[in-house]
From TrEMBL:
Keywords from the named record: Membrane, Transmembrane, Transmembrane helix
Organism: Flavobacterium aquariorum
Bilayer-crossing regions: 7-27, 39-63, 70-91, 97-115
Protein name: DoxX family protein
Length: 131
C-alpha cells in the first residue's frame, strides 16, 4: 500500500506541477478546440483571475505531493479541481478522459489512504463543539 501511495502521489504531483508550470511559462501551444469546449475555454480566459488561481492551487498541491508535506490538506484542496477536470473532459473533451480519471481516482485513493486525518470531521463530537 505504501508503494502504491507513493507512486500515485508522485505521478499526480508531477502532472500538477508540469501543467501549472507550462501554463505560467506558456510552454505548451493552445489546444485546437471547437464548439462548447472552445466557448468554455474562452469563458475561463475571460474571467482573468480563475485560471491563474486554479494553476496556483495545482502548483502548490503538486509540490505538496512531491515533498510529502501537508498531503492530507492538499487532497482536500485539489479535490474540486480534479472533479472539474473530470467533468470538463467527460462532457466537453472526451479525449482527455483517461488522464482526468487517473487524477480524480488517484485523488480519491489518497483521501482514502489518509482517511484517519479526516475522520474527526465527520463525528458527532466534532460537530457538537461548534454548537
Amino acid at each position: 500500500m505504501k508503494t502504491a501511495t507513493f507512486f500515485i502521489r508522485t505521478i499526480i504531483g508531477l502532472l500538477l506541477v508540469f501543467v501549472s508550470v507550462a501554463y505560467f511559462f506558456n510552454l505548451m501551444p493552445d489546444l485546437a478546440s471547437t464548439g462548447d469546449f472552445k466557448a468554455f475555454q474562452l469563458g475561463l480566459i475571460s474571467s482573468v483571475y480563475l485560471m491563474p488561481m486554479v494553476k496556483t492551487i495545482e502548483l502548490l498541491c503538486g509540490i505538496s505531493y512531491l515533498t510529502g508535506q501537508y498531503v492530507a490538506l492538499s487532497n482536500l484542496i485539489v479535490l474540486p479541481v480534479s472533479t472539474n477536470i473530470l467533468f470538463i473532459n467527460f462532457f466537453l473533451n472526451p479525449n482527455g478522459i483517461p488522464l482526468a480519471l487517473f487524477v480524480f481516482l488517484g485523488n480519491l485513493f489518497l483521501i482514502y489512504v489518509h482517511w484517519k486525518n479526516y475522520k474527526s470531521l465527520f463525528t458527532r463530537k466534532s460537530i457538537k463543539q461548534f454548537d
